[in-house]
Amino acid sequence: MMKLPMDWLIKNEAEFIEALNTLDVSHTSGFGFLSKEESDDVIFENFCNWLKEVEEKTHISVLAYIDDLSPEALELDNYRRGKR
Fold first, then answer.
1. Coil, strand or helix: which one is 14?
2. What pLDDT, on a 0 to 100 scale, did the predictor assign at position 41?
3. Which residue blocks in the chain are alpha helix, DSSP H?
4. pTM score
5. Residue 10's CB: how many other CB atoms inside 10 A?
6. pLDDT digit string, tens, across residues 34-69
7. Torsion sign (Cα): 68, 72, 74, 80
8. Which among 30, 6, 24, 15 is positioned nearest to 63, based on CA atoms?
9. d(Cα 56, Cα 23) in Å, to the nearest integer?
């Protein structure tokens, strides 16, 4: 998804938002994000940084997804420390 040109996202905003919704559900359904390994965090951090860039360049409202996808927003470090 991150390789799509910004103009494609603008032209296909509904499809883009639908894909984000699907990712959001698959990431959070049954608290699936809690099973992610620490090594996966960088993938989601990069994706969230890209979402910020998308909103800035396209004005498509996507920042709300960061709360469900960002390891920092989900406080995964605290969860992992408590689990040890």
1. helix
2. 81
3. 6-11, 13-28, 41-58, 66-69, 76-83
4. 0.81
5. 14
6. 677 778 788 888 999 999 999 999 999 999 998 888
7. positive
8. 24
9. 21
